[in-house]
Structure formats: structure tokens, C-alpha cells
Amino acid sequence: MTDVLGGMRRDRAYFQRPKRQREKVLAERDKLTRERPEQLFAPEATEVKDTSMRLSWLETPNDGGDEVYKYELQHAMVNALDAADGTLDDLVWLTSFVTEQGTKGAINVRSVVVRELEADTDYMFRVAAFNQVGASDWSEELRVSTLEEQEREERLATEIPESWHALNGNL
User: Fold this and answer.
1) DSSP state for residue 50 in the 8-state scheme
2) Each residue's pLDDT expressed in tens, for the chain with a length of 171 residues
3) Nearest CA to 37 among 73, 65, 74, 1?
């Protein structure tokens, strides 16, 4: 008579890996079927001002079979490069923004206002997506210029609501 306990026979010796080791092996095997995210399209600039602008991007066309947990947006000042007679390979890229997974796991932020830019300056922007396997290639670069300082002052002067002009004599 053979006793069976939990699907295992008592008269047999079984080898079982510790739970953590099994999970690690399964994760590594699963990782082999996943890839880095696909390259994103170039970001888009809106609300361009003298020292700030809004940058937006679409989610990656293919997450590589693993959820994207982070996007990184970078910028480089092109005017400094032009002054040094350099090439695009000489650009110094700085991280503008990093968005990471929220508490619910999804990344909903794919738009950000980049501040503290210099007026009347050309910038290049690019974005990459990250999953557990690695980072996508950087997107194509977007080249955009901030407004001149005087353009901002003129724009602000015209943004005064018409109703406020009536208050001028009564102040």
C-alpha cells in the first residue's frame, strides 16, 4: 500500500528547488521571450514660450512584451553647439523629466511642461521608454526654439482681459 500526500508518494524521493530559486529561474526564462520597447516617435512641442514649453509623446508602438515602467525625456541646447562649431554628436543631453510607474502600475503621464529654458534658444528633445529588459532606442529628435523675451512681454500685454481696462481710471 502506497500513501499519497498532496500528489506525492511517500516511498519516492523528490527534489524541489526552494521557492525563490524557482521564481528566479521562471523569471529568467520569461525574460528571454521579452524584448526592449520599440523606438518612440519624436515628441511634440506645444505652448512654446520664452522659458518653457509643453512636450508630449505617444506611448511606444510595442512594449516588447513587458510593461513599460518609465519614460525619460531629454533636451540639449543647440545654440551652444552652433557657437562651438560642433556637430549633433557633440550635443550634451540633459534629463528634462522622468516619469515612473504609479501605484496602479500604469504610466499615464506622457506630457510635461519643461521650465527654466533660455529665451530665444534652439533646443532638441528626445524620449525613450524603459521596461524590465532595457531601454528603447532614443526617439527621433525634435528641434524647437523658445520665444524671444520681448515677444513674451508683448504677448502678456495683449492678454489683459478687456474688463480690466475699465478699472484703470477707478484705481
Assistant:
1) S
2) 555 555 666 666 555 656 777 677 666 666 667 889 999 999 999 999 999 999 999 988 888 888 888 899 999 999 766 655 666 677 889 999 888 765 455 567 788 999 999 999 999 999 999 988 899 999 999 999 999 986 555 656 666 666 665 655 555
3) 65
Q: Residue for cell digits 560642433? A: 86
Q: In 3-state terms, what secondary structure has residue 154?
A: helix
Q: Is 152 buried (19+), middle (13-18) or exposed (0-12) by CB count in 10 A?
A: middle
Distance CA 55, CA 38 (A): 20
pTM of the predicted model as reported, rounded to 2 decimal places:
0.66
What cell does 75 get?
533636451
Any idea which residue has 511606444 for its cell? 60
Report the candidate in 15, 32, 49, 27 with the shortest Cα–Cα distance to residue 117: 49
